[in-house]
Amino acid sequence: MPTVTLTPDMVSQGRMKLSKRQSAGSVVARWHDTDAAETIEVVVGEGEPVNRLATTYPDEAVARAAAQDELRRGQRGEQRLDLTLPGDSRLMAEGRLVLEGFCEGADGEWLNTSVEHQLDDSGYRCRIQAELP
After folding, report:
1. pLDDT per residue over 21-39, tens digit each?
2. CA end-to-end span of the chain, whole Å?
């Protein structure tokens, strides 16, 4: 899927929601060290709340990857973007956007969660809803 770059002059209307609260401050995953015969915890992120994964993983790398995935999943959707712009057939759900020249927190890569193409008497336009990947 193509990544579409947008600048402020390409957007008719826009709104961005930044959440101040994080759903997972840190994530704890466990892995079993067979040589030492003990279960070891791996922590990613910082602070409260702490989300503990139920699965015990076979090694540290797998446990750390699972914890990082869970932390990202907890943060996903906390920052949302809603844009309206003239029609662009390259835009599609699950595609990627790169915003350039907007404000801090908005610039960067976004994942399109919904793209609505509309053709009517006003012309062809797109409404995009996106969140951080």
Report:
1. 545 689 999 999 999 999 9
2. 15
